[in-house]
Amino acid sequence: MEKKDLLDGKKILIVDDESDILEVLEDLLTMCNVVTATTFDEGKILLESEYFDLAILDIMGVNGYELLNIANKEKVTSVMLTAAALSPDNIVKSHKNGAAFFVPKPEMIDIVSYLNDILEAEEKGKSTWWRWYDRLGAFYEKRFGPDWQKDDKAFWTKFTYI
Questions:
Q1: Tens of pLDDT, residues 49-82
Q2: What superfamily would CATH give domain 7-159?
Q3: By CB neighbour count within 10 A (0-12 exposed, 13-18 middle, 19+ buried), where does 32 fall?
Q4: Where are the domains of the chain?
Q5: pTM of the prediction?
Q6: Which end of the chain has fewer CB atoms at under 10 Å, N or C?
């Protein structure tokens, strides 16, 4: 049973340059107040002028890492979403730069579960990444092979304890 109650009424900003991605996410997040932007500038203005409980930020098309910096300054919990920047290095970069989660676009169908995980972690004082590997580890192993974490062993060894 999905725990949508944590998302009920939350205000979420989604910034992505692909309108079909925005539409899918809006359809999945009907329990939320969703605001969308298709450019970096629109996303920046919204982050700096409105309150959001969460932000979902594309990495490539909208300069997502710069938006993440702005979201962090505004204390908006942010999720990185990507297809083109799907790599172990970008997972590490997202984590180190303060993202709450990293979602590959092929797995965004489960965005409700991921966002609930984040909100539950925040309520419990845990890392927002606490269920990330359980949810997406198999996806990355299939995508990148069994040694996908080998290039940054120090990070991944520590990550399992976060």
A1: 999 999 999 999 899 999 999 999 999 999 999 9
A2: Response regulator (3.40.50.2300)
A3: buried
A4: 7-159
A5: 0.93
A6: N
